[in-house]
Amino acid sequence: MTTTAGGVVGTALRSLGQRHRELGYCWVVGWCSPAAFAMLLVGLLAQLVANGNAEHGWVRAVRKLTDTYRKLPERWGGSVIPSPRLRDRPLREDPANRRDLFFLALEPLVALVVLFAPNMMAWYGLFGLFAPGIAAFFGSHHGMFYGAVFNSPVAALPGGLALYYAALRLAGPASRLHAHRWLPRLLAPAPSVAAEMERRRLAERVEELTETRTTTVDSREAELRRIERDLHDGAQARLVAIGLALGTVDALLETDVERAREMVRQARDSSARALTELRDLVRGIRPPVLAERGLVDALRALALDAPLQAEVDAEGLTSRPDGPIETALYFAVAELLTNAARHGDAAHARVELSHADGVLRCTVWDDGRGGAHEEAGPELGPGGSGLRGIRRRLSAFDGNVDIESPAGGPTLVMMELPCVLSSRKTSSSSERGSATS
Amino acid sequence: MRVVLAEDLFLLREGLCNLLTAHGFTVVAAVASGPELRRALAEEELDVAVVDVRLPPTFTDEGMQAALEARRERPGLPVLVLSQHVEQLYARELLGDGAGGIGYLLKDRVLGAEEFVESVRRVAGGGTAMDPEVVTKLLGGRRRDDPLAMLTPREREVLALMAEGCSNAAIAARLFVSESAVGKHSASIFSKLGISVSDDTNRRVLAVLAYLNGSVHP
Questions:
Q1: A312: left (phi over 0), alpha (psi -120 to 50) or beta
Q2: How does strand A411-418 pair with strand A400-404?
Q3: I need a surface site. Which of A289, A410, B19, B113 has the fewest CB within 10 A?
Q4: Tens digits of per-residue pLDDT, A191-231?
Q5: What pLDDT digit, counting tens, does each position of A348-402 carry?
Q6: Residues B94, B186: one domain?
């Protein structure tokens, strides 16, 4: 009971707060726009008078002022209006300047019209609320608007309250109209500029994609070559050996049973080794536990096998990422844990997975001696190839890697991948305890 | 002895069927998918189930989930899980209920027919059969604050065999020592690991594994 009542009151208070923020916006913008424009004009005139040349400061001033306006829609759930300036255009020749000036000249008028009603209603409403007091103070209410209408200063109270309430109701639509409809009209890039920006963005993206595709294709090729070589030198060769041994057994069966038995034993050893090699190969392509259980349990299995005390926290992950992303992250974490134990001499590690705003984050922390780096060089030594490999793998998914590894440790590696989670659950069994080790 | 067998690859299923039948088992059901296995485990009278981890239709760990569920329904139901790969994670889940009658072996082990059949019998009898590879991983001893670091090499050997499910007599035979020597070694292991001694081999193995997994303290 108390909680519901508390909830209702809380909601009402929050909504009242929001309404007042909107009214505040109307009030501040309604006053600041004319003031800003006036200040700009005064500054311009002063500069003209001072050195007969106003070109130095005003472009920057206009830019600063309009950039402040560009941030306003963010307050009401919109996004910052993108800057219309192209990076390589000289400051003064930018056509956006003219649009900005045009905006600043029009804005006071628009603000006055759009935000006028809530502002005036709020103030006249407040005046009405205080009118009885004022009237009583002066001992008379003659000639006052409220008194004239209602013939009573007391009637001014509900009148003022109603006006103030109406102002609050109007403030929302008015501020949103101003921030979402009017501001972008002149502050957003002009169509030609927007097209040019889009063209440049796409060109950059194409370059990026070409690059990551090349590295992806290259690493895929290297991987296939490795698999081919492993099969050729491993399982294939062992099967040939088994076939040969069986053939020999066939020949020896009549003559030398003891030797035949020896050959059979060898053939069996070969088949066991072939199986082990195939298993290791499969693990290197796509670990079976990943296929069976998904990323979280695969990482837990990895943590159990790791030569250090590793913990996996995947509370922030509610469902499974796509297969390729799971595989990439799995191998990245495997590499990092191996590095931590082998090069960092770490005793503890922690893997955290979370997903928010379409980005999958995975951080791997260890208490090793730090100093992990990606560059190879005469001073740095040959290391870093593992981290470069991780970056290469993740770049195929537009992923990013951040490494913090001061000398002396600890090492923190943050990996981010833009991705949407599927509806698959993170692990197939819900009744499993925390599998940390 | 009545066996329920679940394996999706036809060749392997037939092979296992033949092997088990040849060794005097009765295969009451040989199934190829998760739902069929669930039905068989629920309906058949069985002494032991031999189950492949990965089964259709999902080709995830259907078989293992079915086995774990069946054991929740019928605690201690003997299950031998087969897989192409072994994971400590799975071993811990299988041992988790501490009820015994659990096996977890690589499929490779069926090549050694005698030993494999012996494992099936042991599991059916309420014992354990852990794959040497799991045991190796568990006893890897690569961790720094490892309680196992205190053990002598001989004690580690004994512990490994114990974890695989061997009885003291079997361990003695494997290591070419007397049974009383094995008894001494195991007593020393338990005191070093802080586990109280019990007469039952199976309980001790479970205790050891649980201790290594860090989940249950005996």
A1: beta
A2: antiparallel
A3: B113
A4: 888 898 899 999 999 999 999 899 889 988 999 999 999 99
A5: 999 999 998 889 999 999 998 888 877 755 555 556 778 888 998 898 899 999 9
A6: no
**Is A44 in contact with A58 (CB distance < 8 Å)?**
yes
This complex has an ipTM of: 0.79
Q: pLDDT value at position A431?
A: 38
Same domain, B14 and B102: yes
Question: Cα–Cα distance between B41 and B33 in angstroms, integer?
Answer: 12
CB within 8 Å: A289 and B85: yes
Which pLDDT score is estimated for A133?
62
In a domain, residue B110? The reply is yes
For B78-120, the pLDDT digits (tens) are 999 999 898 888 988 888 777 778 999 999 888 888 989 999 9
List the domains of chain A with CATH numbers: 2-189 (no CATH), 193-285 (no CATH), 291-418 (3.30.565.10)
Say whether both B18 and B97 belong to one domain.
yes
Q: Is A77 left (phi over 0), alpha (psi -120 to 50) or beta?
A: left
Query: Counting one residue from A and one from B, how many pairs have CB atoms under 8 Å apart?
Result: 69
Closest partner CB to B111 (pick from A268, A309, A433):
A268
Q: Answer yes or no: do B96 and A275 touch at CB < 8 A.
A: no
Record: contact A433-B61, CB cut-off 8 A: no
Question: Domain range spanning residue B153?
Answer: 139-213
Chain A nearest-CA distance from B150, in A, is: 18
The answer to whether residues B31 and B122 belong to one domain is yes
Choosing from B83, B112, B131, the residue where a domain stops is: B131
B69 and B143 share a domain?
Answer: no
The answer to whether A309 contacts B143, with C-beta atoms less than 8 Å apart, is yes
Contact state of A433 with B96 under an 8 Å Cβ cutoff: yes
Chain A contacts in chain B segment 62-121 (CB below 8 A): 65, 68, 83-85, 87-90, 92-93, 96, 106, 108, 111
Distance from the Cα of B60 to chain A's closest Cα (Å) equals: 4
Shortest CA gap B101–chain A (Å): 20
Q: Cβ separation of B92 and A297 shorter than 8 Å?
A: no
Note whether B89 contacts A304, CB cutoff 8 Å.
yes
Interchain contact B145–A (C-beta under 8 A):
yes
DSSP state letters, A347-396: SEEEEEEEEETTEEEEEEEE-S-----S--BTTTBS--HHHHHHHHHHHT
Q: Which residues of A touch B71 (CB under 8 A)?
A: none
Per-position DSSP letters for A120-144, written without gaps between them: HHHHHHHHHHHHHHHHHHHT--TT-
- Count structural domains, chain B: 2
What strands, in cross-sheet order, belong to the sheet with A359-366?
A309-316, A348-356, A359-366, A411-418, A400-404
**B144 with A271: Cβ contact below 8 A:** no
Residue B194 in any domain: the answer is yes
Q: Tens place of pLDDT for every residue, chain B, 218 residues?
A: 999 999 999 999 999 999 999 999 999 999 999 999 999 999 999 999 999 999 999 888 999 999 999 999 988 899 999 998 988 889 888 887 777 789 999 998 888 889 899 999 999 998 888 888 888 777 764 454 566 677 788 888 888 888 777 888 888 998 999 989 988 888 887 777 766 555 555 556 655 665 565 433 33
CA end-to-end span of chain B, whole Å?
A: 32
Q: What is the pLDDT of residues A53-82, one digit of tens each?
A: 556 567 777 888 888 888 888 877 778 888
| Closest approach of A243 to chain B, Cα-based (Å) | 17
Residue B11 sits in a domain of what CATH number? 3.40.50.2300
